[in-house]
Amino acid sequence: MEKKKGLSLQTILTIAGIALIYVLAFLLDRIPGVPIMLTTVLRKGAIYSLVAVSMNLLNGFTGLFSLGQAGFMLVGAYAFAAINISSGIRSTVYQYYDPLLKFSLTETLQNALGNTAGTVLGVFVSLLLAGLLAAGLAYLIGLPVLKLKSDYLAIATLGFAEIIRALVQLEAFAPVTNGSQLLRGFPYFSDTFMPFVIVGICIAVVVLLINSTYGRAFKAIRDDEIAAEAMGINLAHHKRMAFIISSFFAGISGALLAMYQTTVQANTFKSAMTYEILLIVVIGGIGSITGSILGSFLYVACSEWWLRFLDNPTMIGTFKVPLLGHGFRMVVFSVVIMVIVLFYRQGLMGTKEFSWDAIFAFFGKIGRFFKNLFTGQKAVKGGAANE
């Protein structure tokens, strides 16, 4: 009889690590004295990690250079907000227009199922609808755009993103989008646990996709389109699939960003947001899910928290520290990014993913170093030691 194989040590550690992260996220908002900037970094970092992973699915794993993420985030944000504005303040929000949508999906489900169940189901259904609307738009855009390659594809998708941003501000769409005015009065989250759960589920789906036969087809297209086509891979079908799936998760991340900010306005989703996401992908490593997640939290932490003191004029006695003042934070932040790009040409993770074996090997090297240091031995090439 064959022995049944149990869970490996790496699998157990991974499950335990993920469980610990979610336990800490759940307890974080219930512990008094937690810095507000820490919760800000965690919530915004989680949202950015999802959209960075969605961009990496295109740029890193399929080889499609797209710059339209901000546009699909905008679609998801507006879709989520428009179908969930509370009926009590709808007339106040649409003070210059007659709203086309006369209902709130979340309120409708609350009346049918109760407040808690209705809110949870309403939010999840709204997130799915936001993602599906972004995916549907991506399908239409992808029909002409995905025939382009490289920089031409990037320029075309960036142009479509700007067109979408301009369209939602037109008077013709104002009964839904409220024109250039804010949308508010929809459900939002006030804790860290909820965005972590939603983002975790979405990233898990992307990881499963990448490790499936479709993911291997994406990588084959990235490495060599001619060879992939010769092996029977339908290039147009798989490129369109990657583009639609990436846009679906970008739409969900846009809806999450709307819930985080509690308001929606088109000017939030400028092309600069796409560049931020691209920068996160490059810093983390093109072709690395772990790198996108790590890069998102580091980017948000540096830009929103760790370097914030550089914007404040500082006095030491009667001496005023030079340069410190409004805007200097971004100067230092740009220098930090340049250093990372120069010394880590493939990003922090390159194309690698998180691995317990690599962590064990790293700490093993440190342990051997200190052992040799205190015992007076010097390691030589090949692992031998000179006595």
Explain how this protein is built.
- This protein is mostly helical.
- It is built from 16 helices and 6 strands.
- The strands form 3 sheets. It has a two-stranded antiparallel ribbon with strand order 1-2. It has a two-stranded antiparallel sheet with strand order 3-4.
- Strand 3 (about 315) and strand 4 (about 320) form a beta hairpin.
- Helix 2 packs across helix 13 and helix 3 (about 70-80) packs antiparallel against helix 6 (about 115-145).
- The longest helix is centred in the middle third of the chain and has 31 residues, at about 115-145.
Essential attributes:
387 residues; 66% helix; mainly alpha; two-stranded antiparallel sheet; disordered C terminus; 3% strand; 16 helices
Structural class: mainly alpha
What general form does the structure show?
globular
Largest sheet: 2 strands, antiparallel
> Which regions have little confidence, pLDDT < 50, spanning 5+ residues?
379-387
Spatial sequence of strands, sheet with the most strands: 1-2
Rg is: 24 Å
Number of helices: 16
Helix content: 55-70%
Strand fraction equals under 5%
| Element-by-element helix/strand order | HHHHHHHHEHHHHEHHEEHHEE
What is the average of the pLDDT values?
86
Span between termini: 50 Å
Number of strands: 6
